[in-house]
Amino acid sequence: SIDTGDKGDATWALGISSKPYQQLLSWDSPGYVDVYLVHTGNGATRKVMEKLQGRASLSPGGKYVYWWDRHKCAWFAMDVENARTVCMTTDIPHPLEDELNYRPMTPGAYGSGGWTTGDAGFLVYDKHDIWLCDPAGKAKARIITAEEGRANDLRFRVIDLDPEVDYVAE
To answer: Which residue, 94, 121, 149, 162, is most buried by CB atoms nearer than 10 A?
Structure first.
């Protein structure tokens, strides 16, 4: 599959292939993929990840490839221009993985709330609250719900009321 950023105007598109791992689907879940960047101007491709268990996606502006690492239980982002990868969630003191995972597989994430304008920030969830992460790795992740969710046993989540809007207002 191919995913484009910036409504099709990004310099790079994201290519995903599970073909080499089809047989592994019989016993490993989720399946594995190879991840490629495809230059939209000249079609040049470069493999940026091999045998990723899960799925990688392209930020709305096409600046970052991002994914949940099921084994490290963390969110990562890779700058498409310089291939620099950062763990966006290192500073978050609470688990980001489903703590009540009763399936015989590594746990999935509580999820994400999307991107802020211009791919500047990425919103991730712990069990209760929302954190704003820097995909460039320059700033520490910061909580935007003031831990009210944890304190009051609530779950804060972003609700997408307009599918035409790619970004979440900060």
So the answer is: 121
- The number of angstroms, rounded, from the C-alpha of 145 to the middle of its chain's C-alpha atoms is 20
Task: Please confirm whether the linkage preceding 30 is cis (ω < 30° from 0).
Answer: yes
* Torsional sign, CA 126, 133, 89, 110: positive
Question: Encoding tokens for residue 21?
Answer: 């791992």
Closest CA to 47 of 14, 85, 81, 9: 14
Look at residues 20, 53, 14 and name the one whose alpha carbon lies nearest to residue 35.
14
164: which 2 tokens?
């035409």
Q: What is the DSSP letter of 128?
A: S
- Tens of pLDDT, residue by residue over 87-134, are 999 999 999 998 887 666 778 899 999 999 999 999 999 999 999 999
- Provide the 3-class DSSP secondary structure of residue 161: coil
- Quick one: which of 4, 3, 83 has its CA closest to 48? 83
